[in-house]
Amino acid sequence: MGYNRFYINIFINVIFITLSSLAFVFFLNEKNQPATAVLFGVITMFITGRLIYYVNRTNRILEKFLIYLRENDPSLAFTAKHMQKTFQGFHLSLQQITDELKDRRFEKELQSKYLQTIVENVNTGIISFDREGRVELINKTAKRLLGILRLQSISDINRKYPEFGNRLMELKPGEQCLERFTVSGKINHLSIKTSVLKTMDKQYTILSINDIKTELEDQELDSWKKLIRVITHEIMNSMTPITTLTSAIKRKFSHKKESNPLVNITRGDLEDAIASADIIEERSKGVIHFINQYRKLTKLPPLQVESIDISKLFKHIEYLFKEQLEIKNIRLVTTIQHKKTLMADIRMIEQVLINLVKNAFEALGNVANPVISFVSFLDLEHRIVIQVTDNGAGIPEKYLEQIFVPFFTTKDNGSGIGLSLSKQIMRLHKGEIIVDSKQGKGTTINLKF
User: Fold this and answer.
1) Average pLDDT, stretch 260-278?
2) DSSP characters for 294-337?
C-alpha cells in the first residue's frame, strides 16, 4: 500500500508537470499571452522542484541509514512523517534493522569495556603495537613492570633501556625472552612472550610480560638445597672414615690421654696405622677430586663459536668410540635431515655428546641388539636439534627431576657431573637440553640450539 502511494504521488506530479508545460506552450504560441505562459512556466518549475525534493527526501533517508551502517551512529532514528505515510512497511523494516544494530553496537561496547577492564587489572603486562611499532594498547601492569608512564612507540623504550625496544621489534611469533631491569630500586626479572594478531590488512604484535623473580628465587633456592644436600652427602661419605681411622690410630698410640711407650707398640699396630693412613690419603684425594669436579661446573671457559658441519661432528664422535662400539656390539646410526650449519663451540658440544654416549653405554649393558642413534633436524621454529636416542633400560621416573642436579648419580662409579655439565654448556649456547625417558623403553635427549 505504501509503495502504491509513492507511485501515485509521482504519477500525479508528472501529470501536473505535463499539463502545466502544455499550458505554457499553448499560451505562449497559440494565444500569444506571454504573462500567462510565464505563470504556467513558474508552476511547471515549482511542481518539478517539488517532485525532485519529494524523491530526494527518500534518498536522503536511505543515505542517512547507509551512513549509520558505515559509522555505527547510535543516534539515528527514522521518524520522518512522509516515510511513515508513504513507505510504512519499508520504514518499519529500516527501523527494526536500526534498532537491532543499536543493540549490537551497545553489546559490543559493553564487551569492549569488559575486556578492557580485565586487561587493565590482570597481573600480566600487555603491550600491543602495529608493524611500525606504534603502541595501540598498554595496561597498568606493563607500565609498572617497565617503570614507564606513557608509551606511544616501542622504540621509545630505548630511551630508558637502550636497544630493548629494538629487541622487542625483532621478536618472532611465539618467541620468548628473559630480561632484567631495575625499576624504583627493585630488580624485575621479566619473561616476555610474543604473539601476532592479523585483522584484515593490519597486523598487531602482542607482548605478554610476567615478573618471574619469585619463581626464579624459588627454583634457585630449591637448586641450592639439592646441591648442598649432595655436597654434604659426598663430603660426609669421605670425612666419616677419615675421622674414624684417625681416632683408631690415636687410640693405638695413646693410653689414657698419654702417649704409649714405644715398647708397647707392636708391629701389627704400625701396619694398621700405615694401612689407615693409606685409606685417609685415598679419601682425602677423593675429596680434592670432588672439589675439582665442582670447579668444572662453576668455571666453564668462554665460548669459541665457529661454524660446525654436523655430519663431521657425528663422524668424529663415532670415530672416538669406534673400538668400544665394536667391543660392546653396539650399533651407532646417524641421520641428518637438513643442510643448516651449527654455530657453536665444537669442543664443548663434543663433550656433551661424549657424556651422552657414555651414559647410553651404561644403559645398554644388558640389552639385546643395542642401538644408539644420532639425528639432527629442524624443529617448527627452524632451530637445530640434535637428538640422541638409545633403546636401553631408561631412567626411572623418580630420578628424572634430579638427573641435572650436580653430583647426583645412580651409578656405582659415577661422578654425577656429566648431565649437569651438559646443561651448563647448552645454557651457555642459549639452548636447552630435554630428556624424555621411560623405564625399560629407552631414553631420548634433545639438544636444541
Assistant:
1) 67
2) HHHHH-PPPP--EEE-HHHHHHHHHHHTHHHHHHTT-EEEEEE-
SS3 389: strand
Distance (Å, rounded) from C-alpha 351 to C-alpha 418? 9
Nearest C-alpha neighbor of 290 from the set 335, 231, 363: 231
Per-domain residue ranges of the chain = 2-109, 123-211, 216-298, 306-448
Name the nearest CA neighbour of 437 among 428, 446, 426: 446
**CA-based torsion, 250, 255, 260, 265: positive or negative:** negative
- The CATH class of the 306-448 domain is alpha beta
Instruction: Provide the β-strand partners of residue 386.
Output: 376, 447
Quote the pLDDT of residue 373. 93
Residue 378: strand pairing partners: 384
Identity of residue 407:
F
The residue among 125, 133, 213 whose CA lies nearest residue 165 is: 133
- Sequence-separated (6 or more) residues with CB below 8 Å from residue 182: 188
Beta strand 331-336 with 371-378 is parallel
- The 3-class secondary structure across 144-211, one letter per residue, is HHHCCCCCCEHHHHHHCCCCHHHHHHHCCCCCEEEEEEEECCEEEEEEEEEEEEEECCEEEEEEEEEE
Mean pLDDT for the chain? 77
Same fold, 123-211 and 306-448: no
C-alpha cell of 287? 675429596
pLDDT digits (tens, 9 = 90+) for 84-100: 455 555 556 666 776 77
Measured CA to CA, the distance from residue 56 to residue 28 in angstroms comes to: 32
User: Please, are residues 416 and 408 in contact by the beta-carbon 8 Å criterion?
Assistant: yes
- Does domain 123-211 correspond to CATH entry 3.40.190.10? no
Residue 447 in this model has a pLDDT that exceeds 90 = yes
Please choose, from the candidates 323, 374, 326, the residue with its C-alpha nearest in 3D space to the C-alpha of residue 353: 374
pLDDT per position as a tens digit, 366-383: 888 899 999 999 988 888
CA distance 409 to 424: 17
Grid cell in block for residue 168: 622487542
C-alpha cell recorded at residue 429: 649456547
- Amino acid at position 100, single letter: E
Q: What is the pLDDT of residue 281?
A: 74
**What is the reported pLDDT for 385?**
93
